[in-house]
């Protein structure tokens, strides 16, 4: 897994990014992750012109699947106990069709 894609945001939440992912890819990534990891939507989808986000749950673990025009796709651990799940999903994503080569945004 590309460890340089894993980092902590200003709130200390473990985050994984794929900056080259487009807005058009966001729904298919979310669906694939929900199926592959048995994630259940935890909030409704918020979608605007330059960002989209929705929280998902697996038991007590909560994570955010986000996209914005500057950073691309983000996977964010909303709860500290979701860190291992974020690492597992990041590993899966790094081997997925969306892993691709980073392109400037």
Structure write-up:
- The chain has helices at 26-37, 83-94, and strands at residues 6-8, 14-18, 40-41, 46-47, 51-58, 61-68, 72-77.
- By secondary structure, the chain is α+β, with helices and mostly antiparallel strands.
- Strands 1, 2, 3, 4, 5, 6 and 7 form a 7-stranded antiparallel beta sheet that branches.
- The protein has one domain (3-94).
- The model has no long low-confidence stretch (mean pLDDT 93).
- The protein is globular and about 30 Å long.
- The protein is built from 2 helices and 7 strands.
Keywords:
105 residues, alpha+beta, seven-stranded antiparallel β-sheet, globular, 2 helices, 23% helix
Write the layout of secondary structure elements.
Layout: E1 6-8, E2 14-18, H1 26-37, E3 40-41, E4 46-47, E5 51-58, E6 61-68, E7 72-77, H2 83-94
Antiparallel strand pairs: 1-2, 2-7, 3-5, 4-5, 5-6, 6-7
């Amino acid at each position: 897994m590309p460890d340089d894609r894993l980092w902590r945001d200003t709130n200390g939440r473990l985050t994984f990014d794929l900056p080259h992912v487009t807005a058009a890819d966001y729904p298919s990534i979310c669906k694939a992750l929900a199926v592959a990891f048995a994630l259940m939507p935890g909030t409704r989808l918020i979608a605007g012109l330059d960002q989209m986000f929705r929280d998902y749950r697996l038991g007590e673990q909560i994570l955010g699947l986000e996209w914005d025009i500057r950073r691309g796709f983000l996977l964010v651990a909303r709860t500290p106990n979701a860190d291992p799940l974020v690492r597992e999903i990041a590993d899966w994503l790094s081997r997925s069709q969306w892993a691709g080569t980073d392109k400037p945004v």
